[in-house]
Prior knowledge:
Distance between the termini: 43 Å
Shape: globular
Largest sheet: 6 strands, antiparallel, barrel
Amino acid sequence: MTENLPRTARPLRVLAAMSGGVDSAVAAARAAEAGHDVTGVHLALSANPQSFRTGARGCCTIEDSHDARRAADVIGIPFYVWDLAERFREDVVEDFISEYEAGRTPNPCLRCNEKIKFAALLDKALALGFDAVCTGHYATVVLNEDGSRELHRASDMAKDQSYVLGVLDEKQLAHALFPLGDTLTTKEEIRAEAERRGLAVAKKPDSHDICFIADGDTQGFLAKRLGKAEGDIVDESGEKVGTHDGAFGFTIGQRKGLRIGHPAADGKPRYVLDISPVNNTVTVGPVEALDVTALTAIRPRWCGSTAAAPGTYTAQLRAHGGETEVFAELVEEELRVRFSEPVRGVAPGQAIVLYDGTRVVGSATIATTTRAETAPAAV
């Protein structure tokens, strides 16, 4: 049975993480309506909230805090603000910077779920006697007859967010509620529900940007913290075709903003194929050279009691990406994956999340990729 809104013999004590957006507000309202004893909490994640993005779904600004408080008042639940700014800076922001510095492409939202919402927040909630943490994510927790739990995709694939929850382990799933997971309605209908409930966030726009980069300029954000470091842009033969202000400002598969001095011999666009922080070099080439046939991934985390058995699964490689068929096996704590068909734009640092049907098997961080024979491997 699904356990997004469980009705138990006693009401659960639920801590609802309220970002200030419409999804988390409706989730908290549904949990309260289901009869649970709900307390709202907004996470203050910045020592200087004005520096974080405002006017969106955010989770970090003073504006968001006020929106969350007003929503809690309308729902009729207690509300608090918890300061997790230092933990967020260490576990999410600094990790983001160091990953880019090392030539990798991290996902800060996934890291926030792992380290903040379902680690720091959940640990504090359990210590205070709460039974579960509720969020506005679109995903589903299934309770099996043997008492084990599974994480599944949301009923509506268009809104599914299970990818960024693939880091949750069985213990964390046992204390997670996702009241929106079974929603087959559109986002407009979620907004309409919020409006019916009198929640002012009903019309608040969504944001898909990184909350701690105020102006959305990731390259500028990294340059301020890592400093400019001019280096070469080279083609596959090693010939210099341009310069850059820092290899950290690029991601594998990137096409725009390369500032290449002259066109390729065939006149076709060039893409970032490799980033080498050791010699501060960015390698570019044709789109076909991005084809990846296999990868290895480290730090696997399983959404269940056991590791994935060797076999065929589907995999998702980015938050808003599609699925692709893979063969995966665990070899000495390293996940090894072979793709049925080549895929493009796979970068070290990204997360790969494995699925068995709609069930989330687990996730791992991509360490290396193997390119098709027409191109060298990226490490």
